[in-house]
Write a structure and sequence with these properties.
By secondary structure, this protein is mainly alpha-helical. It has one domain. 93% of the residues lie in helices and 0% in strands. The protein contains three helices and no strands. The longest helix is centred in the middle third of the chain and has 62 residues. The radius of gyration is 28 Å and the shape is elongated.
Amino acid sequence: MTTLNTVAEQFGDFSKSSVDAAMKFATVGVGSAERLFGLNFEATKVGFDVTAKNAKAVATVKDVQEFSTLQTKAAETGLEFVMGYSKNLYEIASAAQSQYTSLVEERVSLFQQSIVDTLDKVSKAAPAGSDVFVTAMKTGLAASTAASDSFTKAAKQASAFADTAFKTATETAERTVKPAAKRK
């Protein structure tokens, strides 16, 4: 098999795997959009329901104190709703980001392995003396792989930190709102 045939074969394999990867990315995107649509649809239904209940409650108010209590309860309910919505929205975005990250890592790994395989095949069919070039390419690839791994690790740590910070902030807000609601 000639070097040109080897490269053509590798390119064909790469093209097939690229189509597969594009389908995986699209599936994640569509799934995330579907979850987001479901969340927004449910939020709309709940919003209409709460608005209808509040309108009915306002119609039955008999004095200012009852109206004030109703306002406070409506504000608390609205805040709890917004916090729950935000939490669900974050979970959808976080899950999508995690899936995309996994797909990118998979693609990078496959691409790097493909290059190594191609270099091995080319080195076997290459003329004498080209082993220095192949070794230099493999060394460069190893360095870029190490850099990519370091970047991926740092990105995962930053994502974990952001996730922890968001969850802590949400839990703190929930603990703050619930006691305030019970006092009133």
